[in-house]
Specification:
10 helices, three-stranded parallel beta sheet, six-stranded mixed beta sheet
């Protein structure tokens, strides 16, 4: 595994703009309750029978999921999943797809789970199972360095133009504060950040770690991370079908092992240059009234 190199960023890095069948729960009774040792689900049984874990990821998201200089798929999320599969004695297969395709693919059974810096939200937890978090972060803004794009508070987003995807969490935040979202589709990071620099848009809202690398890739742009605004604390995890309780249990057990033996911390520092596996030790502003 290689540490992310700045030279990769220019053409490979895509901003995470996703900021990502449901069964009704049955009331637990003595007749239907199960112990941790006996709980199971069809998806986990299928994985055990095939001996393979099929994981959806983008392959375009430095430093979470991307192709290195040797054209090998790597990144924080990717290496976590490789280690999980290894410890569960399973082969692993990655399906490369856009973030908009991952969640439907999990629901349909095309893939077993997805790992792509996917934020854990209450709304998503109503439709999917999530692992325990393996990354903790928060939202930040890429703004013009010359004037912070006229933004000194979240309320200043009103009337501004925010580059992003139409249905992402970060675009929801921008719209919540009255910004106009300018959408791009599957565009490279350069397009988003160049437009902030040249004034076509005013801001890109995204994950702190990913935005930090994106901004660093374009030192000639009039661009920087907003120096004072830190908001929307977030947690990222593996996303699985709603009824995949045994799979969730098995993955959580391995993640706990990886946390205790230092593997999560080592991988986080390798790919993010900071320990993103622990909660930030600073004050992060919460956002009220946003249905996520």
């Amino acid at each position: 595994m290689k540490k992310v190199k700045l030279s990769l960023f220019i053409f490979m890095f895509i901003l995470l703009l996703a900021a990502c069948g449901t069964n009704e729960e049955t009331e637990e009774t003595p007749e239907n309750s199960k112990s941790n040792e006996t709980v199971s689900d069809e998806r986990w049984e299928s994985v055990q029978q095939s001996g393979e874990l099929v994981v959806g990821t983008s392959g375009t998201l430095i430093a979470a999921s991307y192709y290195d200089e040797q054209d090998e798929l790597t990144g924080y999320d990717v290496e976590i999943m490789k280690e999980i599969a290894k410890r569960l004695d399973l082969e692993i297969k990655f399906e490369i797809m856009g973030i908009d395709s991952m969640l439907p693919a999990v629901q349909s059974g095309r893939i077993d789970l997805a790992a792509n810096d996917i934020e854990i939200t209450d709304k998503r937890k109503g439709q999917f199972n999530f692992s325990e978090p393996y990354k903790y972060s928060y939202a930040t803004m890429a703004v013009r360095e010359s004037d912070n794009s006229g933004i000194e508070s979240l309320e200043d987003l009103e009337g501004k133009k925010a580059g992003g995807g139409a249905t992402t969490i970060y675009s929801q935040i921008a719209e919540h504060y009255g910004a106009e979202v300018v959408t791009y589709g599957n565009a490279p990071n350069e397009a988003y950040l160049s437009d902030v620099s040249n004034g076509r848009t005013d801001v890109v809202i995204n994950d702190y770690y990913l935005t930090k690398f994106g901004v660093a890739a374009f030192p000639d742009f009039d661009l920087h991370l907003h120096p004072t605004i830190k908001f929307h604390p977030s947690q990222q995890g593996v996303i699985m079908p709603k009824d995949a309780d045994k799979m969730t249990e098995e993955i959580n057990n391995v993640l706990q092992e990886m946390r205790e033996d230092g593997t999560l911390s080592e991988l986080a520092k390798e790919f993010y240059e900071e320990d993103a596996s622990v909660e930030p030790n600073e004050e992060i502003e919460e956002i009220d009234g946003l249905d996520l």
